[in-house]
Predict the structure.
Amino acid sequence: MDESAIARRDFFYVGGRYAGPPGEEVMHGQMYVERLTPREKRRPYPLVMFHGMGQTATNWLGTPDGRPGWSELFAAEGYEVYLVDQPARGRSAWQPGIDGDLKSFAAAFLEGSFTATAAAPRWPQAAKHTQWPGTGKRGDPVFDAFYATQVAFLADQAETQRLMLAAGTALLDRIGPAVLMTHSQAGLFGWLLGDARPALVKAIVALEPAGPPFENAVIAEGKARAWGLTDLPLAYDPPAASPDDLRIEQQTKPDRPDFVRCWRQRAPARRLKNLARIPVLLVTGEASYHATYDHGTVDYLRTAGIAVDFFRLEEHGIHGNGHMLMLEKNSAEIAALVAEWLANTIPG
């Protein structure tokens, strides 16, 4: 990787506690954090990048075909960059008997969901996918390099969020005000951390965040995210003591034939009073499965009082992207669009 934008790399751990039988205690819940200091720091707040399910911080370090990753691109923009491995993931130790069962993504799932979606489209937009470098299938060196980065992850989504909330707030308390960049599963963490530390979160860039509200769609099914955006409680106003207090309804028909029928709050909607203080950018690729439902997440956020800018990449002249925006052929173009929004939203 070209280090030209980076003056220094170092790491530390945040969070964690000892657990286990007396005399056999081990630390769990700690989170690995890598800090990249740019040669020229020009931005007022650091950028913290959170990876998605099955991934680690390597998502941001480089692409599987050897191009610079977003960590370097944003360091070149003058950001101090923090990269994390989720607790119980990657370099953040998973402790057997304490941290719960693990799951992994099969190669075929990644081919059909992320890298070769046009070959056998499972949702209408998938046929437009052109930006993955290589064939996107096993045996192609780029796909194999990508799949080699995949790691096991906690099966329990609520426990993942609890661990991440504890470690993420510890990180913010240590480094101070920051911009959060989340991808996929990590979208949940952005909402939780913004809710828990609204004064320390200066903006959230949500790249295809986990959704839509309340129910899985397209590549999974079943109820999920009982609090709308997360599985853990959020600070609604008026307060909601349990998810049952949220009065919700599903659209009778989708906004477009190639969209999902999404769930939303009935009027009058409760506000997410802490998140309402934070500017949010939500970014969606033209060919991703998220193209079918991210509008539902945007609608939910706006109804709850949050100012959201919604970038469908094709509306900005950026075409053919699937879910792994930071790894695809035009990743630098997408990064530049996000960097422009950040510069306009949080002037240096």
Q: What stands out?
A: Helices lie at 58-61, 70-76, 107-115, 141-148, 157-175, 187-196, 294-303, 331-345. The chain has one domain: 6-345. Residues 6-345 form a domain with the Rossmann fold fold (CATH 3.40.50.1820). The radius of gyration is 19 Å.
